[in-house]
Amino acid sequence: MSLPAAASWRHQDSRTGLEVAFFQGYEGGWRINGATTAVEDGESWFVEYSIVVDAAWHTRRAEISGRSSSGTRRTVLESDGDGRWRVDGLPAPRLDGCFDVDLESSSMTNTLPVHRLGLALSEAAEAPAAYVRAGDLTVERLEQRYERIGDRDFAYAAPVFAFSCVLRYDEHLLVVDYPGIAVRLP
After folding, report:
1. Residue 55: exposure state from Cβ atoms within 10 A (0-12, 13-18, ≥19)
2. What sign for the dihedral angle of Cα 157, 159, 160, 163?
3. What is the dihedral of CA 114, 24, 183, 123, to 10 degrees?
4. C-alpha distance across the termini of the chain, in Å
5. Would you state the torsion angle of the CA atoms of residues 76, 134, 56, 150, taken in this order, to the nearest 10 degrees?
């Protein structure tokens, strides 16, 4: 599937800000470089990322740097493509079985599992992810579920946050509407 050279999102409701991502073919997969900045609950933060996914859309590497009132941080996540991870060079067994990285600061990262899963209409799948917090870049496991309910519509749930919504995607399977979080800019 093709991707545009770039895409942008405006954060809305839960925070105010902007995200920009650039897509480049890389070793049969994709390299996605982006940045997102926002004010949320009175706190400002900035996150810059470089994510590499292989041809099957498994996240292989994510380099993330950020700045918030708590300081400047950097973290590197690496996956073997079979669901085993290293965080800053150390094994992270709590992430075993995850194939995607999900940045709290990013709407773009919700495209990764949708591409990887290739769900048919009415099909659903669990998609746990290596979840990186915006403010301090803490890495944790996030249980998620996607169900394809339309040609480009997916029911999404993250039970730990008691959150669910319908994510709407474009022809490239990039999020165009993430209710309460962000909308894609033309």
Report:
1. exposed
2. positive
3. -10
4. 20
5. 180
Task: Give percent of the chain above pLDDT 70.
Answer: 99
Asked if 69 contacts 82 with a C-beta cutoff of 8 angstroms, the reply is no
Kindly report, residue by residue over 172-183, the tens digit of the pLDDT.
Answer: 999 999 999 999
Give the CB-side neighbour count of residue 78, counting CA atoms within 13 A: 7
Rg (CA), the chain: 15
Helix, strand and coil content of the chain, in percent to the nearest 5, comes to 10, 55, 35
What does DSSP assign to residue 174?
-
Backbone angles phi, psi at 111, to 5 degrees: -80, -25
| d(C-alpha 159, C-alpha 60), whole Å | 25
Contacts of 162 (CB under 8 A, 6+ apart): none
**Mind listing the pLDDT tens digit for each residue in 97-109?**
999 999 999 999 9
Angstrom CA distances, 164 to 24, 50, 147, stand at 31, 27, 11
